[in-house]
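Q: What residues go here?
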């Protein structure tokens, strides 16, 4: 009986550790990919006036953490908001901001320029339009990541400094 009780305690302890490790602190980042601009989140994008919003569950501390992975050099990283992701066709720009309150959110605008393909995926442009992401500008200081048509791996935008994809 004592062994069974000890085994049950170990299992309960492992479940509690798993819940802590997979909590909203370690949520999936918002990932922006090149070609057409594809924005993917771990949760559902909801219409929110002139924007799309994504409930993160994290207190953003009025910031977004950004990591731009380039194929030809070191990653470009920054913290701040807004985050502007610029696209070559028609000078489109997706602007990410934060909203606090009882349900912290990351927002992206303009809603009209981004089509919702699935609850987790927004898209601007199409694979055949010849467009590509040209720049990422982070915060008021306008930290800029230089992107060419062929050197972008992915852009990770996180609501917490604890998400490994943005470190």
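A:
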């Amino acid at each position: 009986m004592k062994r069974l009780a000890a085994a049950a305690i170990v299992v309960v302890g492992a479940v509690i550790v798993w819940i802590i490790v997979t909590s909203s602190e370690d949520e999936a980042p918002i990932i922006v990919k090149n070609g057409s601009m594809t924005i993917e989140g771990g949760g559902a994008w909801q219409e929110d006036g002139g924007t799309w919003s994504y409930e993160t569950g994290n207190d953003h501390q009025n910031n977004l953490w950004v990591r731009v992975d380039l194929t030809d050099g070191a990653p470009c990283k920054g913290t701040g908001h807004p985050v502007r992701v610029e696209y070559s066709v028609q000078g489109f720009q997706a602007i990410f901001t934060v909203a606090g309150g009882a349900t912290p959110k990351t927002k992206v605008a303009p809603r009209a320029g981004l089509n919702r393909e699935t609850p987790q995926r927004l898209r601007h442009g199409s694979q055949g339009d010849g467009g590509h992401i040209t720049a990422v500008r982070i915060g008021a200081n306008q930290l800029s990541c230089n992107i060419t048509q062929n050197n972008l791996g992915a852009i990770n935008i996180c609501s917490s400094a604890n998400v490994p994809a943005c470190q």
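A: Context that may help when evaluating the design: The mean pLDDT is 77. Helices lie at 2-21.
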